[in-house]
Amino acid sequence: IDAPISVSQEGMVYFTDRLSDDLRQKRREQLLAVTEDDVKYAAITYLKQHETKRDYSIAIIGEENEEIEKNNEYNVYRMKIDEAKES
């Protein structure tokens, strides 16, 4: 959040996100004010409850992997890409 940006990047941030310097600074201060307890609370509230309910999905897109294929928790679907559409 504190990486230096050029003047043109500053203008682009304002143009695309409509964030003034004041709003950007406020967001920065809020992010830096997050505590370890805040992160733990968010994880328990928004992530852990879903883990036990199993009402979520995981998608992995990439090369074939024997470990994943052997794991019965995953359904592996192969995507067929029409080579004619690629070119």
Protein model, in words:
By secondary structure, the protein is mainly alpha-helical. It has one domain (7-86). Helices cover 57% and strands 0% of the residues. It has five helices and no strands. The protein has helices at 7-17, 21-32, 36-53, 66-70, 83-86. The longest helix has 18 residues, at 36-53. The model has no long low-confidence stretch (mean pLDDT 78).
Instruction: Tell me the count of domains.
Output: 1
Give the beta-strand count. 0
Silhouette:
flat
What percent of residues adopt helix (DSSP H or I)? 55-70%
Computed Rg? 21 Å
Task: Summarize this structure briefly.
The protein is an all-alpha fold and 87 residues long.
What's the layout of helices and strands?
Blueprint: H1 7-17, H2 21-32, H3 36-53, H4 66-70, H5 83-86
Key features?
metal ion binding; 87 residues; mainly alpha; single chain; Metalloenz_LuxS/M16
